[in-house]
Amino acid sequence: MFDEPLFTLRELADQLALPESTVRYYRDAFLDRIPSVGTGRRRRFPPAAFALLRSVAKGYSARLSRAEVLKRIEGVAPAAEALAAPDIERLRQELKAERALVDRLREAKLKLEQRTADAEGALAEHRGRRSRRTAATWPRCATTTT
């Protein structure tokens, strides 16, 4: 389900040729039946939501009650929790792997920062020794006054 393109509420409304407020009403009325990813303003809908919302719109345009529309789509759209249940464990495993990767990258960054600081310190020390050595071995040029 998550490999498919995801759409915003506005995109759903445009595709269904319905006002965004109507699609929002349908979404709220059948929230447990309409598959979605995310929450709030970041909520996105898979292509399966188009067919489901189209069925809801047809039911309401036929003057069916919410309960009748729900009965009509019951077989077509199982509860969203049932759709998401198989994916939840897979997503948890992916999240665990991503967190482990972030931890490893954070550790590598700290090691690199430490190595950079050590190298900069060694370079500064080397430059300091070199400048003292250069000053001691090179005779100063005498300035002549005319």
CATH architecture of the largest domain: Orthogonal Bundle
Structural class designation: mainly alpha
- What is the H/E order? HHHHH
Mean pLDDT: 81
Overall 3D form: rod-shaped
State the helicity in percent bands.
55-70%
The counted number of beta strands is 0
Total tally of structural domains: 2
Q: Tell me the fraction of residues in β-strands, as a range.
A: under 5%
Total helical elements = 5
**Major sheet:** none
Instruction: Kindly report how far apart the N and C termini lie.
Output: 90 Å
CATH topology of the largest domain: Multidrug-efflux Transporter Regulator, Chain: A, Domain 2
Description:
The chain is an all-alpha fold and 146 residues long. It has 2 domains: 78 residues, Multidrug-efflux Transporter Regulator, Chain: A, Domain 2 (Orthogonal Bundle), CATH 1.10.1660; 52 residues. 68% of the residues lie in helices and 0% in strands. It contains 5 helices and no strands. Helix 1 packs across helix 2. The radius of gyration is 33 Å and the shape is rod-shaped. 8% of the residues are buried. The model has no long low-confidence stretch (mean pLDDT 81).
